[in-house]
Write a structure and sequence with these properties.
Elements lengths: L7 H11 L5 H8 L2 H6 L3 H9 L5 H14 L5 H8 L3 H10 L3 H9 L4 H5 L9 H11 L15 H24 L4 H29 L8 E7 L1 H4 L9 E9 L5 H20 L10 E2 L12 E2 L1 H10 L3 H7 L3 E5 L1 H17 L6 H14 L17 H15 L11 H10 L5 H25 L10 H10 L6 H23 L20 H10 L5 H12 L4 H19 L3 H15 L5 H7 L3 H11 L1 H9 L10 H4 L4 H14 L3 H25 L4 H31 L6 E7 L1 H4 L9 E9 L5 H20 L9 E2 L12 E3 H10 L3 H7 L3 E5 L1 H15 L7 H17 L18 H15 L11 H10 L5 H25 L13 H10 L7 H22 L3
Parallel strand pairs: 2-3, 2-4, 7-8, 7-9
Antiparallel strand pairs: 1-2, 1-5, 6-7, 6-10
Helix pairs in contact: 1-2, 2-5, 5-7, 5-8, 7-11, 10-11, 10-12, 11-12, 12-14, 12-21, 15-17, 19-20, 19-23, 20-21, 21-23, 22-23, 24-25, 25-27, 26-27, 26-28, 26-29, 27-29, 27-30, 30-33, 32-33, 32-34, 33-34, 34-36, 41-42, 42-43, 43-44, 43-45, 44-45
Length: 1010
C-alpha cells in the first residue's frame, strides 16, 4: 500500500485524527511499514476504527509496527489477532495503547500473543492456580510442602519474571478492556496482589534452591502487609512484608533464624536484582519490629514480646492488613492470629486517636511542596485520607464488631456503612472517589510499569490518561476537574469521619450493653455532623430511657437512625422532628412497629426529617402521613378523578362554606405533603411533582368555585346562577408546572344567561370571585392558596372579572403582545365547560396568530424581555444565580419556548400546548429548534425549577429567597441533598447549575434574541 500526500492520504489523515491520533503523518508512515504490511494487507482499514477506543492510538501504532518486525518469521498469530473483529484485537490494542512496558514485553516475547487469544479473564482467578503457574515456571512442585525450584540462579529468576509478566499481561488486558474500570478495579487489585504472592512463593523456591539443604531446617512465612496484604495492590508498588521463622524440631533457633534471613534475602533478590528480564518491585520489610534496625527475621514469640512492650500505635494499624502470602501457611496463619488481640485492642491505648491523627499529619508533611498538588496517594484529599479514615473507624469499632475487620479498604468501607458506622451516601461517595484515584494511579503506573503516584501535567499524558479511564469526551480538562472534585470530596469526608466513635448499631443492644459513655457519644455526634451534640443527647435520652416497650424499640432504632439523620444536611433538625413525631405517635400500636419492621419507612423518615424542613413541618401537622413512607404506592400522586371524588364528598357533607373550603385546603395540604415526601425520597420528582401540585390546585379551585357560587346565590336568594362562571389557569399553573410556593394565576370570566340582567350578572360574578379569593387566601388552620388575577386585561387597573363579550372586545381592540404571550398558558380549570370551549376559541388567534407573529410584535417581545432582565431582577442578586429571572433561568427558557409558539403554532398543532417542555419538544420535532438546543433549554429549565422547589423544601418556606441559588455552603449542601445529590455535593450542584444555565443562555441569545 502507498500513502500519497493528497487524495486518499488526506482522507486517511483525517480518519486518523478523528480516531484520536496526535501525529497523523507519523501514523501513516507506521501504517506503511513493510513489516506491518507483511502481516496484513490493509492495516488502516483494520485498525483505524478500533483505535478510537485506545488510550493512545499513536503509541499503539508504534508498538504494533515494532511487534510486526519481531514476528517477521512467524506472523500468523499476529495476523489472526488483527484480522479478528472480536476480543483478541481489542485486547492487544488496549494493552499496547496504554502501556509502553507491556508493548515491549510483547516485542521481546511474541509468544505472549497467545495470551491475548485466550478469552480467560485475568481477574477472578483462583489463587492456587496463579501460585502453581509461577512455581511451575521455576520447576518447583506446587503440591510440595516446601516447593524448591529446579531452575535456579539467573535462569530461574528470569523464568519467574517472564511468567509474572505474562500473567500481568492477562490482568492488564482484562482491566483495559473493561467498560467500567472503576467497578473492575477491586478485582484487578486483588489479582495483582495474588500475582505478587505467587511471585514471592516462586522467589522463595529459587532462594531455597541456592541452599544445599534447601533451608529445610526452618519454617519461614512471608506475611503481606499494606496493599498486598489487603489484596488491593497497584501495578507497581513496593511489596511490604514481615518474615516469621520457626526452627523445625531438632534445629537450633539461632541457626534457623540465620537460614531464614538468607532465604528472605534471596527472595528479595529474585524480585528486584538486575537480570535479563526486568525487575518486579522492591520487597520492603521496613514494617517489621524495630524497622530497618531490627532483625530481618523473627520468631512468633519475639514478635509477640515486641508488640507487648515496644510497639507504637501505627504498627498495630499496619498489622490490620497482615495476611500470609508465601512460605509456611500454617505458620503465617498462627502469626496473624497472634497479632489480632493487639490490633483490635489498640484502641484502648492512651492517645490512640490522637496518635492516628498525628501520623496522618506527618505523612502529609513529608510530601514535597512541588508535588503536593499532583499527589494522588499521599496529599490532601488523596488515597491515604480514605485509607486512614477507614482504618481508624475499623480499629475503634472492630473490637466489638468482627464484620468490619476486612483488610481491604473498599470491603471495609462497605462493611462500615452496612454497620451504620458511616453514612451510606458518605461511604458510596468515598468509594467512588477512591476507585477513581486508584484507577488513575493504576493507569499512570501501567504506562511504563514504574512506581509513581503523581498526576501528569503534560497535555498528551493527561489525554491518554483520560481516554484510558473512559473519559474520552471530557478530555484532559474534564479529567483534571473530576480528580480535583474527588480530592475535595475525600478531604471533606475524611475530616468529618476521622474521629467517629462507636454507637451501637445492632438491633439487640440495650442502653446497658452499649460500649460508649455519653461523652463519647457526644463526640461521635459532633464528628458525624450534629451541631448541638449535647442537645441531641437530650433527645436520645428522652426517647430511650425507661423499661417500656416503646423505649426498647427506640433503642433498636436510634443507633442506625442517628447515622441516617447525619446523611442529611440537618441532622439536629431531623432528630428534633423525630422526637416530636415520636412523642405524638409513640404510644400508638403501629408507629414504632412500622419503623422497626418496614424495609424503607425508618430510612425514608430519617431522610425527609433531616433534609426538608417543609416535610418535617408537614409530617408534624399530620403525623399519620408517616405510613406513606412504607409503600411507594402511597407516595404516588393521586389522580384527578380520585381527588375530584374526595372533594365532591367533602362538599356534599358540608353545610358551612368556610368549613368546606377549609377541608378542601386541607386536602391540598395533604397532597402537598405527599408530593414533598415523595420528592425528597426520590419517588416522584421534577415534572411529575409539578403536575401533582397543579392537580391539587385544580381540585381546590373547582370546589371553591362551587362553594362561592352557592354563597352568592344564598345571599341574593337566587335558585340558579344568573351567569356562567369560568376560572382560567394562567402562568405555571396553566402549564401544570406549579411549585410548592406557587400562587394560582387566573383569569375570571362570566357569561350572563339569556335574558339575565347584565348588571346583576356582573355583580354576582364579582361576588363569586371575591368570595373565592378570600376563602382560599385567608389566614386559617390550613395553608392558603393565593389566587392572583393580575394577568387580566388592564392588569390591576381592570375589573376583577369580565364578561365573555368584554374579553372579546378587549382582545379585538386593545390586546398587547405580552397578553398574547401570557395566553399561551391559558387553561380552563373550573366552571362551565361550554364557556371554556368558547374562551379557548376566542384566544386562539391571539396566541396562535395566523401566519405567525408579526416582526414588529416580535421586536416588542424582545424589548419587554430585555426590560424585565434589567428592571425586575432584585437589587444585589447576581444574574447568574437568580433561578427565575437570571441568565439561563426559568424565564429565559419560557420566553424562548413561547416565542417559538407564537411564530409557528398556527401551522404546528403540537406547539399548541401550555407546557414549556412539551413546547420545546414540539419545536424540535418540527425542526424549528435544534434538538441539542432543545435539550439544553429543557435541562436548564428543569434544574432551575427543581432548585426553586428544593429551596422551599429545604427551608420550609417560600418567598423571594426560593428564586435564588444560595451562596451559603450549608444552604447549598442542604439544597443539594434535597434534589438528590450525594452528601457534601453543594459545590458540585452549584457548578452544575451555573454551567447548565450558562449553556442555556447561549442558546437563548441565539434563538430568542437572534
Amino acid at each position: 500500500m502507498t500513502v500519497s500526500s493528497s487524495g486518499r492520504g488526506s482522507s486517511l489523515a483525517g480518519r486518523l485524527t478523528r480516531a484520536g491520533v496526535s501525529d497523523p503523518a507519523r501514523a501513516q508512515t507506521l501504517l506503511a511499514d513493510a513489516a506491518l504490511l507483511a502481516v496484513v494487507d490493509e492495516p488502516a482499514e483494520l485498525l483505524i476504527g478500533p483505535l478510537t477506543d485506545v488510550a493512545d492510538p499513536d503509541l499503539a501504532l508504534l508498538a504494533l509496527a515494532k511487534l510486526a518486525g519481531a514476528v517477521v518469521d512467524d506472523s500468523a498469530v499476529l495476523r489472526g489477532i488483527l484480522q479478528d473483529d472480536g476480543g483478541p484485537r481489542t485486547r492487544l490494542l488496549a494493552v499496547i495503547g496504554a502501556s509502553v512496558a507491556l508493548g515491549d514485553t510483547l516485542v521481546a516475547h511474541p509468544e505472549a500473543l497467545q495470551i491475548l487469544l485466550d478469552d480467560t479473564p485475568g481477574t477472578g482467578v483462583a489463587v492456587e492456580g496463579v501460585r502453581a503457574e509461577l512455581l511451575s515456571a521455576v520447576g518447583a512442585d506446587p503440591s510440595a510442602d516446601v516447593p524448591v525450584a529446579t531452575v535456579g540462579g539467573a535462569a530461574g529468576i528470569d523464568a519467574m519474571r517472564r511468567a509474572y509478566r505474562f500473567r500481568l499481561l492477562r490482568i492488564a488486558a482484562t482491566d483495559l478492556t473493561s467498560n467500567d474500570p472503576l467497578s473492575r478495579l477491586p478485582g484487578v487489585a486483588a489479582a495483582l496482589a495474588d500475582l505478587a504472592a505467587a511471585a514471592l512463593e516462586a522467589s522463595l523456591a529459587i532462594a531455597r534452591a541456592e541452599l544445599d539443604d534447601h533451608g529445610l531446617g526452618v519454617r519461614l512465612a512471608v506475611i503481606g502487609m499494606g496493599k498486598c496484604g489487603g489484596r488491593e495492590l497497584n501495578y507497581v508498588s513496593d511489596v511490604d512484608v514481615i518474615y516469621v521463622a520457626e526452627p523445625v524440631d531438632g534445629v537450633d533457633e539461632a541457626e534457623a533464624l540465620s537460614v531464614g534471613a538468607r532465604l528472605a534475602a534471596g527472595l528479595a533478590r529474585a524480585c528486584s536484582s538486575p537480570s535479563v528480564e526486568p525487575a518486579l518491585w522492591p520487597v520492603d520489610a521496613a514494617l517489621r519490629p524495630e524497622g530497618k534496625n531490627g532483625p530481618l527475621v523473627r520468631t512468633i514469640a519475639s514478635h509477640k514480646a515486641y508488640y507487648e512492650r515496644w510497639a507504637k500505635t501505627w504498627e498495630f494499624q499496619a498489622l490490620l492488613k497482615a495476611r500470609p502470602l508465601a512460605g509456611d501457611g500454617a505458620l503465617g496463619r498462627e502469626y496473624v492470629e497472634m497479632t489480632q488481640p493487639f490490633v483490635w485492642g489498640a484502641v484502648t491505648r492512651e492517645h490512640f486517636v490522637e496518635d492516628s491523627q498525628a501520623m496522618r499529619r506527618r505523612v502529609e508533611s513529608y510530601v514535597p511542596a512541588a508535588e503536593a498538588d499532583r499527589q494522588i496517594k499521599l496529599g490532601v484529599g488523596g488515597l491515604r485520607d480514605v485509607e486512614f479514615t477507614v482504618q481508624l473507624l475499623q480499629l475503634v469499632h472492630g473490637r466489638a464488631d468482627e464484620s468490619i475487620r476486612s483488610p481491604s479498604t473498599l470491603t471495609a468501607l462497605a462493611a462500615l456503612a452496612a454497620g451504620g458506622y458511616v453514612g451510606r451516601s458518605h461511604a458510596a461517595q468515598l468509594a467512588v472517589c477512591y476507585r477513581l484515584m486508584r484507577a488513575l494511579e493504576h493507569r499512570i503506573q501501567l504506562h511504563r510499569l514504574r512506581r509513581t503516584h503523581l498526576m501528569p501535567t503534560s497535555e498528551p499524558d493527561l489525554r491518554r490518561l483520560a481516554r484510558s479511564v473512559g473519559m474520552r469526551a471530557e478530555g484532559a480538562d474534564g479529567l483534571v476537574e473530576r480528580w480535583k472534585a474527588a480530592k475535595r470530596d475525600v478531604r471533606r469526608l475524611h475530616e468529618e469521619l476521622f474521629y467517629r466513635p462507636l454507637l451501637p448499631a445492632t438491633a439487640q443492644l440495650s442502653t446497658e450493653e452499649a460500649s460508649l459513655s455519653p461523652d463519647e457519644a457526644r463526640a461521635r455526634l459532633a464528628a458525624i455532623g450534629y451541631l448541638d451534640p449535647a442537645g441531641a443527647m437530650r433527645h436520645i435520652a428522652a426517647l430511650t430511657e425507661g423499661l417500656s416497650r416503646r423505649a426498647a424499640i427506640q433503642r433498636q432504632l436510634l443507633p442506625v437512625m442517628l447515622g441516617w439523620f447525619a446523611d442529611g444536611a440537618d441532622p439536629d433538625g431531623g432528630l428534633l422532628a423525630f422526637r416530636r413525631l415520636s412523642d405524638e405517635l409513640g404510644a400508638t400500636h403501629w408507629y414504632l412497629k412500622l419503623l422497626r419492621d418496614s424495609g424503607t419507612a425508618a430510612r425514608r423518615l430519617a431522610r425527609v426529617l433531616s433534609t426538608s424542613r417543609y416535610v418535617a413541618d408537614a409530617l408534624t401537622r399530620s403525623p399519620e402521613s408517616v405510613t406513606w413512607l412504607a409503600d411507594d404506592a402511597d407516595l404516588e400522586p393521586r389522580t384527578y378523578e380520585r381527588l375530584t371524588a374526595e372533594a365532591d364528598a367533602i362538599l356534599t357533607r358540608s353545610e358551612e362554606p368556610v368549613k368546606a373550603v377549609t377541608a378542601l385546603r386541607g386536602l391540598r395540604r395533604r397532597e402537598l405533603a405527599r408530593t414533598a415526601a415523595a420528592d425528597v425520597t426520590g419517588t416522584v420528582t421534577g415534572t411529575r411533582a409539578s403536575q401533582s401540585l397543579s392537580v391539587a390546585a385544580d381540585i381546590v379551585l373547582v370546589g371553591a368555585l362551587r362553594v362561592a357560587e352557592w354563597e352568592a346565590r344564598s345571599q341574593r336568594g337566587l335558585d340558579e346562577n344568573p351567569t356562567r362562571m369560568l376560572v382560567v389557569a394562567m402562568g405555571r399553573w396553566g402549564g401544570r408546572e406549579m411549585g410548592y410556593s406557587s400562587d394560582a394565576d387566573v383569569l375570571f370570566v362570566h357569561d350572563p344567561l339569556p335574558g339575565a340582567d347584565h348588571v346583576l350578572a356582573q355583580e354576582f360574578a364579582l361576588s363569586v370571585t371575591t368570595t373565592l379569593r378570600t376563602m382560599l387566601s385567608s389566614v386559617g388552620p390550613e395553608p392558603a392558596l393565593e389566587v392572583d388575577a393580575d394577568l387580566r386585561p388592564e392588569g390591576r387597573n381592570g375589573p376583577m372579572v369580565r364578561s365573555f363579550d368584554s374579553y372579546a372586545e378587549y382582545y379585538d381592540r386593545w390586546s398587547s403582545p405580552w397578553e398574547s404571550q401570557a395566553l399561551l398558558r391559558a387553561r380552563p380549570v373550573a366552571g362551565d365547560p361550554e364557556l371554556a370551549e368558547r374562551f379557548v376559541e376566542l384566544v386562539a388567534p391571539l396566541r396562535y396568530p395566523d401566519g405567525g407573529i408579526d416582526p414588529s410584535v416580535e421586536r416588542e417581545i424582545r424589548r419587554i424581555k430585555a426590560r424585565v432582565e434589567s428592571e425586575r431582577l432584585p437589587r444585589g442578586i447576581e444574574p447568574t444565580r437568580h433561578l427565575k429571572l437570571g441568565r439561563g433561568g426559568i424565564a429565559d427558557v419560557e420566553w424562548t419556548a413561547q416565542l417559538l409558539q407564537l411564530r409557528h403554532a398556527d401551522r404546528e398543532p403540537a406547539l399548541r400546548t401550555t407546557g414549556t417542555l412539551e413546547a420545546l419538544e414540539a419545536a424540535a420535532a418540527a425542526g424549528h429548534l435544534d434538538a441539542d438546543d432543545a435539550q439544553v433549554l429543557a435541562d436548564a429549565w428543569q434544574l432551575a425549577s427543581r432548585l426553586r422547589d428544593g429551596n422551599v423544601l429545604w427551608t420550609g418556606r417560600g418567598g423571594a429567597h426560593a428564586d435564588v441559588l444560595p451562596h451559603d455552603r450549608q444552604a447549598l449542601a442542604g439544597l443539594a441533598r434535597v434534589v438528590g445529590y450525594p452528601a457534601g455535593s453543594g459545590g458540585e450542584l452549584e457548578q452544575d447549575y451555573l454551567r447548565t444555565a450558562r449553556r442555556a443562555r447561549t442558546v437563548v441569545e441565539r434563538v430568542f434574541y437572534g
